[in-house]
Amino acid sequence: xxxxxTTRVVLLAALLLGLAVVYIPLLVVVVNSFNVDATFxxxxxxxxxEWWRKAVDNTGARDAIWTSVQAGLFATAIALVLGxxxxxxxxxxxxxxxxxxxxxxxxxxxxxxxxxxxxxNNAFRTVIGIELGFLTLVIAHATFCIVVxxxxxxxxxxxLGGNFEEASMDLGADTFTTFRLVTFPMLRSALLAGGLLxxxxxxxxxxxxxxxxxxxxxxxxxWIFNNLFRPNQAPIVNVVxxxxxxxxxxxxxxxxxxxxxxxxxxI
Length: 267
Description:
The chain is mainly alpha-helical. The protein has helices spanning 5-32, 50-57, 59-92, 98-110, 113-128, 134-160, 163-170, 175-203, 207-212, 220-227, 234-263. It starts with a helix and ends with a helix.
């Protein structure tokens, strides 16, 4: 399709505007992490690495990051297992109420976080009778992480169909061998994409976490929220945010490379 010069200019301007809206605030956070002024006077009169040294020595930030990483890994592991099994059940078998079950699996991601948080809080404390803590936090995060894994896996299964699996079993392979040698290699990129997205959702979740983590468990988003408006902690919050921006490049790059290889015909 050939576009006119005016159309190309408008599209380019829209692209640059969109990128500016997204990345200029992120750039401000990174610059402020080196701002010598703790009140974030702009533009910075002088730059310093003092806040980065203090962030490294801040046990509260380190503990919060480790808690978020642990919760994200456990929630992602649960989501990969349950989301994949649910996707296989709905993609490979026909049964009464399949569409209703599919809706129920997807529903948690569509519900407002505060509704999910209140519901889980009541379920844990009054129905099940367990204290809020790290376990309840992981379970709560897994409820919406399952959805993103499910969506990625079922989309891949529907696109692939069942011909390869049927051919494998016709040639004498059992169910486990077929999954290991045929199905799993075709699902690897979908599982990785779903796992990365699930971990990201868990890592930065704050609303559901507030209702299900308990007073003794502090994830990174909760720590940031509690320290953002404290004069002595606000610069360290910017450092932590800047570090997360930099670290986020790695999984995004890996996911993009894998997606590019898959779209090019490799599985």
